[in-house]
């Protein structure tokens, strides 16, 4: 079993290497945030409260981002390994043993990825802690290296996240007959499974419970309820985003097909190729959208939460003359690690499917499509992903704002919902640049090679 696991990992190294590097980065970031939490113990009471208010949501958001992105990456990796899995089933290997191989692969990846992230974490954590304290006007600067507890707990968290993410991957392959998996272009059937439905029901119940709790707790005045409602609104964001990410393939498919229809086929070859490519690889579209959607939705939602709270404070006359409003340094301190992870996750899922994309580009070249049209289609595809993820992220933030405004409206009249569009657009533009570069750069480099040679690889 061990030999089979290692051989398959080495044979499919192009699929797994980018996920391995992402896990190392995730380990370093989570350990750095954990070191920040530990640094708060050595601060005065007032500054300790500031650091905890920053580090707690920071760690929660980063952990959720790692879970959602890793789940999508594992799902894509399983899709890309569909033929080996199908061959094993045809050869008589039991489904249980194939599942054991996949789980063992994930444990190895989590172990090695965590190990690669340890030296990076030990290097980054003290500098990260010092920078966060200075950026948020904490006068007492402490130099706290990553502790053994933080390193081991984060390592275990990564392995646990991988195993949890692997539940979807195991089911997506093992439910398909072997012959069907070998012959079909799309292994993952677009039908709900029990695991996804169960998770959706639990998360939907949690979202409704938090939303109802926000509205029901809105009694008294704005000043006394401000912190509670803002905290619940942030929790609501952290629950809605994974729920939508779980179904983003289906949601994005319908929305992307609707808005990309505006450009007729005869007007742009690149647009037509990109649109048809998205329609053919529905599951790959969803996986590519998830990291970018998470980044945009979190940035817009968190800013929206604070903007809506400021709107309520203004309505209640609590805004002091000359007050600057939102502490942008503090908000981006909370968002920074998650945005970095999401952008890295975007590049990760693109790199995982690099070989499959290269084969598709070679087929287009054989069919007579010019290199310029191929690169143009890639850039347009990145634009389609970015626009779709941005709109979905802004809609998520709008939903949070409506619930929060309803709660504040029960305290003071005149507290309308506020949607922070700017942060989502900024993150979406950055995500588009990363996607376009990650997708187009290999195509630019390989166009001098003959298409037949590329097909042979």
3D architecture notes:
The chain has helices spanning 2-11, 13-39, 45-80, 82-90, 95-135, 148-174, 178-183, 194-216, 222-246, 248-259, 269-280, 282-315, 328-352, 354-366, 371-409, 421-446, 451-456. The protein is built from 17 helices and no strands. It has 457 residues and is mainly alpha-helical. Mean pLDDT is 78; it is low at 184-192. The chain has 2 domains: 1-189, no CATH class; 193-457, no CATH class. The chain is globular, with a radius of gyration of 23 Å. The chain is 81% helix and 0% strand.
Task: Explain the layout of strands and helices.
Elements: H1 2-11, H2 13-39, H3 45-80, H4 82-90, H5 95-135, H6 148-174, H7 178-183, H8 194-216, H9 222-246, H10 248-259, H11 269-280, H12 282-315, H13 328-352, H14 354-366, H15 371-409, H16 421-446, H17 451-456
Helix pairs in contact: 1-5, 2-3, 2-5, 2-6, 2-13, 3-6, 3-9, 3-12, 3-13, 5-6, 8-9, 8-15, 9-12, 9-15, 10-12, 11-15, 12-13, 12-15, 12-16, 13-16, 15-16
């Amino acid at each position: 079993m061990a030999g089979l696991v290692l051989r398959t990992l080495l044979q499919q190294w192009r699929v797994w290497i980018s996920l391995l590097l992402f896990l190392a980065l995730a380990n370093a970031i989570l350990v750095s945030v954990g070191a920040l939490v530990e640094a708060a113990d050595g601060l005065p009471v007032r500054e300790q409260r500031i650091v905890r208010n920053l580090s707690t949501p920071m760690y929660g958001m980063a952990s959720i981002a790692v879970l959602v992105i890793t789940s999508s990456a594992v799902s894509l990796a399983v899709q890309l390994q569909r033929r080996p899995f199908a061959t094993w089933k045809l050869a008589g290997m039991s489904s249980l043993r194939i599942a054991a191989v996949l789980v063992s692969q994930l444990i190895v990846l989590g172990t090695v990825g965590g190990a690669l992230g340890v030296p990076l974490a030990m290097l980054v954590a003290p500098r990260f802690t010092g920078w966060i304290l200075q950026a948020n006007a904490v006068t007492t600067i402490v130099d706290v290296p990553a502790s053994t507890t933080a390193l081991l707990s984060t390592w275990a968290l990564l392995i646990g996240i991988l195993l949890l993410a692997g539940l979807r991957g195991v089911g997506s392959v093992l439910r398909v007959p072997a012959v069907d998996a070998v012959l079909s272009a799309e292994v993952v059937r677009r039908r709900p499974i029990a695991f996804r439905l169960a998770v959706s029901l639990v998360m939907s119940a949690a979202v409704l419970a938090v939303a109802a709790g926000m509205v029901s707790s809105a009694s008294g005045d704005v000043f006394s309820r401000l912190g509670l409602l803002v905290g619940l609104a942030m929790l609501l964001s952290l629950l809605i985003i994974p729920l939508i990410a779980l179904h983003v393939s289906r949601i994005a498919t319908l929305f992307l097909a609707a808005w990309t229809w505006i450009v007729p086929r005869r007007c742009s070859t690149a647009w037509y190729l990109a649109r048809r490519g998205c329609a053919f690889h529905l599951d790959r579209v969803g996986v590519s959208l998830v990291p970018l959607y998470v980044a945009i939705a979190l940035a817009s939602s968190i800013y929206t939460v604070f903007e809506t709270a400021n709107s309520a404070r203004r309505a209640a006359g609590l805004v002091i003359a000359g007050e600057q409003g939102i502490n942008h340094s503090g908000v981006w301190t909370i968002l920074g690690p998650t945005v970095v992870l999401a952008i890295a996750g975007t590049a990760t899922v693109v790199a995982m499917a690099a070989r499959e994309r290269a084969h598709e580009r070679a087929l287009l070249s054989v069919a007579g499509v010019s290199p310029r049209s191929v690169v143009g289609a890639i850039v347009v595809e990145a634009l389609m992903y970015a626009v779709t993820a941005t709109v979905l992220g802004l809609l998520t933030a709008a939903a949070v704002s409506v619930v929060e405004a309803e709660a504040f409206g029960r305290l003071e009249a005149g507290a309308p919902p506020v949607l922070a569009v700017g942060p989502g657009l900024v993150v979406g533009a950055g995500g588009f640049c990363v996607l376009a570069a990650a997708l187009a750069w290999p195509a630019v480099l390989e166009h001098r090679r003959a298409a037949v040679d590329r097909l042979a690889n």
